[in-house]
Amino acid sequence: MEIFRYGADRRPIALIGLFFVLNLAIWAFVDSPLVHAVWLLLAFVPRGGICAFNHHHQHLPVFRYAVPNRLLDLVYGLQTGMTSHGWVLHHSLGHHVHYLDQAKDESRWRRDDGSRMHEIEYGLVVGVTAYPRMLQVARRFPRYLRVFVVMTVLTLAIVAVLFALRPVPTVFAFVLPMVFMLFHTAWATYTHHAGKKTSSHFVASNNILHRGYNVLTGNLGYHTAHHLRPGVHWSELPALHDTIAERIPADCYLSPGLPWNFQQRVVGPPPGMPFAPGTSTEEDLESPVAGAALARE
Question: Which has more confidence, 297 or 207?
Answer without folding.
Answer: 207
